[in-house]
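Input (structure):
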């Protein structure tokens, strides 16, 4: 084997090992389509960084894709990538955990209550997230405790230390001995008092016996009186209950009639109770309502606004074309969507008119020049058709499209600039996590109805380069196969979703 061959093999093996290790540690990700994106906000996220693990119940389910400062540095926004097989609910929240005392930190996700609705992909965790326990705060608390212990020890040392402290401690022991002697003397006096008054105590006990005997004699008489009073109360209650029972019977007759009608299947309630078909229809209706609200809950809305300014004149005219797009994308699910939008265009659109001339007999039968007594020159003079073309500037056009997503590809079809067409979008992954590139190829206006003297289809190459999640730059080539309308364009755009609107409104309410 030659030296060059060996060196080449060594470089190939080293490159393969490098790529494998980069994939294993997460530097390159080719399986992002298997993960859903969620967002969480923290006041402090110390110890975590990009590519940190995201776990549920200690099991790794994803990673932290991005960490950004928001709200002028008052909050931290974490972008989480979580496997699609793991489901989060609307009360899910995140907290920073640590593996042991000296281990690294990771993000723990509490999925939430399964009885609540699912949290759709691209949403933020609504419950407040919990930041890490700060070690410096714990050390500060330990320092405060140590200072208190030192202060107590110093106070005790000052109280009982030295000769004066020993004297105070000796005096305390003497006082305790004196107290014990006094307590013993009190016990002796109490015993002497009981001994001297033993006769009086016997007399008191005998009088208590007499009182108890009197009570025993009086209790039967009192019981008899109580029994008589209870019999009177029972009679009154029995009379009142009879009256109440009579009233309940008066009320019960209509209720009995209502129950009988329900048992016979009369009325709406009776049909629901007795007719199985009505019950099934009601269940189907309730299930339909529940399914509808589930779909509404999962629905996502994306707002897109961007401009396109042409670099050259429009169809060799004296102005340059400028367009402004306002589009709304409604996603009933993650893999398809509906798009509707308005386009403000300076070039407007063409309007074509045709003027027809016709001749009729007296019986309203139409004639053509060949049937009339006209010379060839007169026939040309009275040609039956004239065409006119006008361009109305500064008009509004519209987009109505349906799209289907397959991984990084998206196919769209419908109305483009008020004409039928199709398009394909490609989401190109970039090495920089914050940047994103979406390239689109659109084909519409198949017969060239928006141009004058050019019947070729309108082909447009549109690129959106995202510098942040919401702001992007547009550039590309417009109508690049036409005869007179080839043009390059550029512009800026803004894209945000309903979650961004909710977050903005929540922050606005806090400021107000």
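Output (sequence):
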């Amino acid at each position: 084997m030659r030296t060059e061959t060996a060196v080449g093999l060594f470089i190939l093996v080293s490159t393969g090992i490098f790529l494998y290790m980069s994939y294993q540690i997460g530097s390159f990700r080719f399986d992002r389509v298997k993960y859903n994106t969620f967002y969480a906000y923290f006041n402090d996220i110390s110890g975590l960084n990009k590519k940190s693990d995201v776990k549920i119940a200690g099991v790794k389910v994803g990673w932290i894709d991005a960490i950004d400062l928001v709200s002028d540095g008052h909050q931290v926004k974490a972008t989480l990538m979580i496997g699609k097989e793991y489901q989060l609910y609307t009360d899910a929240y995140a907290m920073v955990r640590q593996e042991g005392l000296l281990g690294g930190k990771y993000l723990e996700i509490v999925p939430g209550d399964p009885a609540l609705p699912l949290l759709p992909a691209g949403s933020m965790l609504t419950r407040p997230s919990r930041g890490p326990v700060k070690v410096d705060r714990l050390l500060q608390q330990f320092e405060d405790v140590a200072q208190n212990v030192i202060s107590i020890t110093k106070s005790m040392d000052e109280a009982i230390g030295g000769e004066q402290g020993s004297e105070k401690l000796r005096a305390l022991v003497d006082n305790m001995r004196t107290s014990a002697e006094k307590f013993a003397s009190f016990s002796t006096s109490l015993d002497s008092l009981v001994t001297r008054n033993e006769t009086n105590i016997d007399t008191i006990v005998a009088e208590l016996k007499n009182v108890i005997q009197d009570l025993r004699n009086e209790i039967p008489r009192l019981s008899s009186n109580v029994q008589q009073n209870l019999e009177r109360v029972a009679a009154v209650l029995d009379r009142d209950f009879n009256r109440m029972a009579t009233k309940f019977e008066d009320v019960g007759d209509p209720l009995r009639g209502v129950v009988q009608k329900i048992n016979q299947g009369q009325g709406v309630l009776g049909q629901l109770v007795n007719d199985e078909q009505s019950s099934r229809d009601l269940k189907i209706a309730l299930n339909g309502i529940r399914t509808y609200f589930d779909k509404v809950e999962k629905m996502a809305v994306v707002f897109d606004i961007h401009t396109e300014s042409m670099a050259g004149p429009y169809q060799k005219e004296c102005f340059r074309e400028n367009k402004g797009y306002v589009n709304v994308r409604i996603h009933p699910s993650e893999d398809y969507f509906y798009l509707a939008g308005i386009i403000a265009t300076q070039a407007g659109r063409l309007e074509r008119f045709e003027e027809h001339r016709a001749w009729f007999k007296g019986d309203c039968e139409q004639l053509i020049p060949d049937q009339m007594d006209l010379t060839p020159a007169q026939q040309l003079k009275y040609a039956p058709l004239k065409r006119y073309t006008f361009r109305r500037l500064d008009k509004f056009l519209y987009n109505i499209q349906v799209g289907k997503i397959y991984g990084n590809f998206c196919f769209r079809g419908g109305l483009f600039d008020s004409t039928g067409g199709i398009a394909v979008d490609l989401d190109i992954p970039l090495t920089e996590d914050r940047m994103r590139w979406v390239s689109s190829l659109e084909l519409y206006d198949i017969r060239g109805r928006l141009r004058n003297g050019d019947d070729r289809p309108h082909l447009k190459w549109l690129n959106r380069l995202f510098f942040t999640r919401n702001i992007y730059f547009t550039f590309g080539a417009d109508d690049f196969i036409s005869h007179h309308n080839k043009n390059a364009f550029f512009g800026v755009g803004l894209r945000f979703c309903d979650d961004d609107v909710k977050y903005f409104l929540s922050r606005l309410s806090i400021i107000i």
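Notes: The first strand starts at residue 35 and ends at 42. The chain has a mean pLDDT of 79.
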